[in-house]
Amino acid sequence: MKKYCLFAAFAIFALALTSCSGNRQQAGDAIAVFELDDFLAVAEQKVDQTITVVGFVTHTCRHAGKKAFIVGESKGTTFRVEAEGEIRGFASDLIGSKLAITGIIKEDHLSEEVIDEMENNVRSLQEGGASAELCEAELGNINEMRAWMRERNKNYYAIYYMEGITYELLN
Hints:
6 strands; alpha/beta; 4 helices; 171 residues
């Protein structure tokens, strides 16, 4: 049942995501470099900009390797990178590696309605006998999303990710 609770919330979350295209950095412009933990504090101001983010690979998608997930030194937040530009894919042997990934920052939104639906699904699973611990964790994530929205006076929750263009192995 644990997997169903997490899967249901993630499935709705995944459906809400869309991809965008963006502007490329002008030739000669310096590209800012951020450790992932530092970048997350300024992500909102970096949308549609080309930057370099440094982090540790925690997961790559198995089939085509078109996505990788990285964390910073704190390992507190996961950040998605999609293979674009010169990146054909992320091989699974990169897991655990430290990368400097250059790409364009993008933003997706989860609407209040989608977040309400996520909460309703988690509560239904909880009532159906799903793991209380796992569902409480999911409900905690939903509450954090709502707090973020209140603090910024937004009617959506922002999800930042990168369309990766190139990467360099650092270790």
